[in-house]
Design a protein that fits this description.
This protein has six helices and 46 strands. The protein is mostly beta strands. Helices cover 12% and strands 37% of the residues. Helix 4 crosses helix 5 (649-667). Strand 6 and strand 7 (92-96) form a beta hairpin. It comes from Oncorhynchus kisutch.
């Protein structure tokens, strides 16, 4: 089987599609060019097409909405409608003689169709609640229909049935004369209509094709079938014969391999979440592995030669590389263990020569084991803890090219479902930031929070879900929080980039991205990388200076961070030119990416910045002192007026006017700018914008 018909619902609209290569490519059905009366039908794809009801009857006494037979290749009879979608009104009957390439209308009402003489004749009876006495018969694949009477008295038809065997010329109609009468059976023998048996001259060859392309699933198929003009009996001796020959492979014989998506130009490229190099992670140096080209032959396709060598996966030598992507988990995937019971640790290596990478597991209680390779611990490493506590379990993979370590914090001892560590994506060096652990559900009884910073071996334990910290060095700092509630231990981990200063701005997206947002951390991480690459390509900014973080929740939002240029030796932030270039590209809709085939997402700048630039230079110290002096003088003036306003009447009026002005200033909202420079040396009382106060305190989480 290679040719299929299917109905697909999109936005509550059902349309019929056809495929000739087991579902790799689908297309709409071309409607007939004329109706029963010969009038032209104007129906242009893709706005208008033929749609079929694809219900196959489970009742042997009635036909379904679509009928076909193996003994009648290429002939399909079905009920349906022409238009923008499939409807249950204005249903007509349609037939194809070339396996779905072209269709003809045969009735403008629903009929039951029965195949006789292996498809050499078709019999049709109208679907109607009224009694009937006629049927229709065609000997030329539905091009012409002859009317016959099968009873003298009209009959309410309940069903029809052919005799066993597809070569039969006998059918039975059963029904009742009235609603109170018993069933009436009418047996019809059509053998008297034919006056001879078919000879070799009554047959022709028919090439199965797809819009004129004879190679379907890599094979040319030629059938022997009855000519439409022949009116003869094929009988039991007739059998469908087919000759076939293989075709050279073409691009149409291949589909995209796992991890690859087909672009609009037909090429298969890696999906945004797929890393092709990960396919060699289980490779051993000196051996080979199958490296995908991005394509694989469609199942059951029998093409040969052609481009098969170019599209078929190639066997390549395994690369020699250091261990990368080391994972350490327990066999049950939990971070808790029962005292005195076996705990099984599983160690996984994503990339590297597993056969030549030694694994050392330190259980954190003074015991450690070393294994010569990863394969020797496929069933896990068992260990029994003899004391209650929190253990820092470390797994280290090492070979001659490098090493990598991974840490698991195991609690050896209610039910907490999920936690999320809310932390800034980027922080300022030596500036205090707030970290918050959010729990679901929020009330789970007594909760203990365990905070791990970087490579510190001792955690910070609190009873509150928030903690303040500072980072004294630039670079990526890892923060891990574990929450203990009853017997449940859950954790979340975030990497925070620490810099002297940075500039950030919120991003928004075209609404179609929300339809594909599952709101999970893995998806946000993958999409953040894609957005960053798109911004780098559109603006020319170096990747090292740009960070992007997709924020949780809907509608989808993100934030980009412009980091300082490490080449600058004065430690001063660069001008706004680069930021203006990025914002200009966003405002001109130059930053776009393809989420999947047919889904193009546009990235643009939101109206409000979430974190302004923090400037650690001393450029603004002079203006800050001037502002401070002005505030001091103004304060002294107000104080003098207040003290002496009772003695000097004129000053009472002046003080009242000043108070009214101050009230107006307090009530007037301050419009925050999208990007603001703040000096850390500026006194806090001079910061009048709520946004600038948040920046100085650095308490608002940025990103995830």
């Amino acid at each position: 089987l290679w040719m299929f018909l299917a109905n697909k619902m999109t936005d509550s609209v059902v349309k019929t599609y056809i495929t000739y290569n087991r579902g790799r490519d689908w297309r709409l059905l071309q409607a007939p060019t004329a109706d029963l009366r010969g009038n032209s039908i104007r129906c242009e794809l893709p706005y208008c097409s033929l749609h079929l009801h694809l219900h196959v009857s489970a009742n042997p006494y009635t036909s379904g909405n679509i009928e076909s037979k193996d003994s009648a290749p290429g002939i399909i009879v079905a009920s349906g409608s022409i238009g923008a979608e499939l409807t249950t009104s204005n249903v007509s009957m349609f037939i194809t003689s070339d396996a779905g390439n072209t269709w003809r209308q045969i009735f403008d009402e629903e009929y039951s169709v029965l195949y006789l003489d292996q498809g050499g004749a078709l019999v049709a009876i109208r679907h109607t609640p009224l009694p009937i006495r006629h049927l229709w018969m065609s000997f030329d694949e539905g091009r012409e229909w002859n009317k016959y009477s099968f009873t003298m008295s009209p009959l309410f038809v309940d069903g029809l049935l052919g005799e066993p065997g597809e070569e039969t010329l006998i059918m039975t109609i059963f029904g009742h004369v009235s609603h109170r009468s018993e069933w009436q059976l009418v047996k019809i023998d059509f053998r008297s209509i034919f006056n001879r048996r078919c000879t070799e001259g009554d047959y022709q060859t028919w090439h199965l094709h797809n819009r004129g392309e004879p190679c379907i699933m890599g094979v040319k198929r030629i059938y022997r079938k009855l000519k439409p003009i022949a009116r003869c009996v094929m009988g039991k001796t007739y059998s469908v014969t087919m000759t076939s020959a293989p075709c050279d492979c073409t691009e149409a014989d291949f589909e995209c391999d796992y991890g690859y998506d087909r672009r609009s130009d037909g090429k298969c490229t890696p999906a945004f979440w797929f890393l092709p190099s990960s396919m060699s992670r289980s490779c051993t140096t000196g051996t080979t592995f199958i490296n995908s080209t991005g394509y694989r032959k469609v199942v059951s396709n029998n093409c040969t030669a052609g481009i098969i060598a170019e599209y078929t996966a190639r066997r390549q030598h395994c690369p020699t590389q250091a261990p990368k992507g080391l994972h350490l988990v327990t066999s049950e995937g939990k971070l808790t263990a029962t005292l005195g019971t076996n705990v099984t640790f599983l160690v996984f290596l994503e990339e590297g020569d597993g056969a030549r990478t030694s694994i050392m597991v330190d259980f954190g209680d003074g015991h450690a084991l070393t294994y010569s390779n990863v394969s020797s611990i496929e069933n896990g490493v068992k260990h029994v803890y003899k004391a209650v506590g929190i253990y820092r379990v470390t797994a280290t993979g090492e070979n001659r090219l490098g090493s990598e370590s991974v840490v698991l914090y195991l609690h050896v001892t209610c039910q907490l479902e999920y936690i999320h560590l809310s932390a800034p994506f980027v922080a300022v060096k030596s500036k205090e930031v707030n970290l918050t652990a959010v729990l679901w559900p929020s009330q789970v009884g007594t909760v203990t929070y365990i905070w791990w910073f970087g490579n510190n071996t001792e955690p910070i334990i609190t009873l509150e879900g928030s903690v303040a910290c500072t980072f004294s060095r630039e670079g990526v700092n890892t923060v891990t929080v574990q929450v203990s509630a009853g017997n449940a231990i859950l954790q979340d981990r975030k990497a925070i980039a620490v810099h002297e200063y940075f500039r950030s701005h919120l991003l928004a997206f075209s609404s179609n991205l929300d339809d594909h947002n599952p709101d999970v951390a893995e998806w946000r991480l993958d999409v953040s990388r894609v957005i960053k690459n798109s911004m780098v390509k559109a603006t020319g900014v170096t990747p090292e200076r740009l960070l992007v973080s997709v924020l949780p929740g809907l509608p989808t939002a993100a934030e980009f961070f412009l980091l300082p240029d490490k080449e600058l030796t004065e430690g001063k932030p660069d001008k706004n030119s680069l930021t203006e270039i990025i914002l200009s590209a966003l405002n001109q809709n130059l930053v776009q990416f393809t989420l999947r085939p047919g889904v193009q997402v546009t990235v643009y700048a939101a109206h409000l910045s979430a974190a302004p630039l923090v400037d650690m230079s001393e450029n603004h110290s002079g203006s800050a002192m001037l502002m401070l002096l002005s505030v001091v003088v103004l304060g002294l003036a107000i104080f003098v007026v207040y003290k002496f306003k009772r003695k000097i009447p004129g000053l009472n009026v002046y003080a009242q006017m000043q108070n009214e002005k101050e009230q107006e200033m307090i009530q007037s909202p301050v419009s925050p700018t999208e990007s603001t420079l703040v000096s850390p040396n500026t006194p806090r009382e001079l910061v009048t914008s709520p946004e600038l106060m948040d920046t100085e305190l650095n308490t608002r989480p940025i990103g995830e």
